[in-house]
Amino acid sequence: AMTTFARQEASSAMARDWQTVQGARILLVEDNEINQQVATEILEQAGVTVEIAENGVQAISALDARIYDAVLMDVQMPVMDGYEATRRIRMDARLRALPIIAMTANAMSGDREKSLAAGMNDYVTKPINPSQVMATLAKWVQPVQSKSSGIACSAQRTEPTSVRQATDKLGDERPWPALPGISLVDGLTRVGNNRDLYQKLLVQFRASNEGTVPDIRAALAAGDLPTAARLAHTVKGVAANLGAKRLAAVSAELESAWKQGRTEGAEDLIGRLDAELSVVLAGIRAFAAALAKPELELERKEEQRTETELDLELVRQQLAQLAQMLEFGRVDSLEKIEALDRQLSGGEVKVEWERLKQHVDMFDMDAALADLKEITRLTNEL
Question: What pTM value is reported for the model?
Answer without folding.
Answer: 0.50
